[in-house]
Structures are given as C-alpha cells and as structure tokens.
C-alpha cells in the first residue's frame, strides 16, 4: 500500500513535458488553473473550466465534453488530425497498444480520447473510418470532432493555441477530473509505461 502511494505521489509531481509534434516553437503547453469561484464544488469548477460544449464522436453521438467525456473517468487526451501523415498515425497506433494493455479498465474507468484539431476536415464520417483502422471502439476510445468554435474553445482550454493543424501538440495529456489531477507525458514514453501511469492516476487517493 505504501509503495503504491509513493508511486502515485511521484506521478503527480512529474514536471510537465514540453515535447510537441512537428517541432513548432510557439505553442503554449502550460495548463491554466480555473479561477477560484466561491461555493462551487470541484465538479462544478471543473465543468466551468473545461466547458460542457457538445462534440461529436466517431459513431455520430453528440457528447458533452465534461459530462460525457471527462466526468468520473481518468482520460488520456491526444490532439491530432486525420490527414497528418507522420506523427499522428504513429501515436494513434501507440494508443491502440496502450488500450490493449489496459484490458478491462479501458472504457470502465479509463478512457482514451483522440481530439481533432482540424474539425473543418475531420467530419464524424471521416473519423469513423480512421478510428476503425486502429480498432477503436467508442466505448473505450473516442475520436472527437465538432463545430469549429467548440473544438477551438476546448483545445485552448487544454493548452493548444496553434492556428495551423500541422502545429498541434503531440504530448499526451492525462487527467483524473474527479481528483483534480492532471499531468503531461512525452509521446516517446513506451506503451507499458503510459498504461501504468494511467492506472496510477486512476487509483490516486482523493
């Protein structure tokens, strides 16, 4: 028990990684804390910060970002675009292996999320075929798009500010919203290490 607590604590003290795709130099990677609002619960503050804007999954369902994606889950969020031919398919292939390593926890209390930064091009129909190429089931791995303004607002909340999809960040954002714990991992981390970090984050004491 003490060893698990030490490992979980070490995870949460990890420095934020600065790795990003395509070596774009002008991207903001720092997550801004939600402003303190009196008399709001942690859940209400999280919903206010991350927003509950609607997005569309690869199966055509409309999902509210906080209520349907983040709430009560530990998530791994990767920002990508489907027409990318270098980093994106490689990292989504890595996430497919991470999902397999998570076993029954994938979709139960841990959710993988690939969020497009190019919603004009990445329609739900396009993402459905893209997701199927990686064996992604919407129950455990969401590929999300939506209205331009909704996607833009959400990715900015997640620390992404590049106007060009090719400048998207490639770090992996891990979060346990219920516990208010977030960290970033470099995409070079091996699949077993990513899966273990997700388990530790999901199991961190409240």
Number of domains as seen in the coordinates: 1
Q: Roughly how many Å is the radius of gyration? A: 16 Å
Look up the CATH topology. Answer: Glutaredoxin
Class per helix and strand makeup: alpha/beta
Query: β content, as a range?
Result: 15-25%
Structure overview:
This protein is of the alpha/beta class and 206 residues long. The chain has a single domain (2-29, 37-202), classed as Glutaredoxin. The protein is built from seven helices and seven strands. Strands 2-1-5-4-3-6-7 form a seven-stranded mixed sheet, sandwiched between helices. β4, α5 (124-133) and β5 form a beta-alpha-beta unit. α4 (87-102) crosses α7 (191-202). It starts with a helix and ends with a helix.
What secondary-structure arrangement, pairings included, does this model have?
Elements: H1 2-12, H2 42-50, E1 54-57, E2 62-64, H3 65-70, E3 74-80, H4 87-102, E4 110-116, H5 124-133, E5 141-145, H6 148-157, E6 172-176, E7 181-185, H7 191-202
Parallel strand pairs: 3-4, 4-5
Antiparallel strand pairs: 1-2, 1-5, 3-6, 6-7
Helix pairs in contact: 4-7
Quick gist of this model?
This protein is 36% helix and 17% strand.
Descriptive tags:
36% helix; single chain; seven-stranded mixed sheet; alpha/beta; 206 residues; 7 helices; Glutaredoxin
């Amino acid at each position: 028990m003490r060893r698990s607590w030490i490992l979980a604590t070490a995870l949460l003290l990890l420095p934020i990684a600065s790795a990003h795709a395509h070596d774009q130099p002008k991207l903001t990677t720092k997550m801004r804390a939600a402003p303190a609002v009196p008399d709001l619960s942690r859940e209400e503050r999280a919903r206010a910060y991350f927003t509950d804007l609607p997005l569309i999954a690869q199966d055509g369902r409309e999902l509210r970002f906080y209520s349907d994606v983040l709430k009560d889950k530990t998530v791994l969020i990767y920002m990508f675009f489907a027409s990318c031919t270098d980093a994106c398919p490689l990292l989504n292939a890595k996430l497919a292996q991470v999902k397999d390593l998570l076993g029954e926890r994938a979709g139960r209390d841990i959710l993988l999320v690939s969020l497009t930064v190019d919603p004009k091009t990445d329609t739900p129909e396009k993402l459905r075929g893209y997701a199927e190429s990686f064996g992604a089931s919407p129950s455990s791995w969401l590929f999300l798009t939506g209205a331009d303004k909704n996607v833009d607002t959400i990715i900015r909340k997640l620390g992404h500010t590049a106007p060009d999809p090719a400048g998207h960040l490639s770090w992996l954002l891990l979060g346990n919203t219920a516990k208010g714990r977030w960290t970033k991992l470099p995409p070079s981390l091996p699949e077993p290490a990513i899966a273990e970090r997700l388990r530790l984050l999901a199991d961190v004491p409240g």
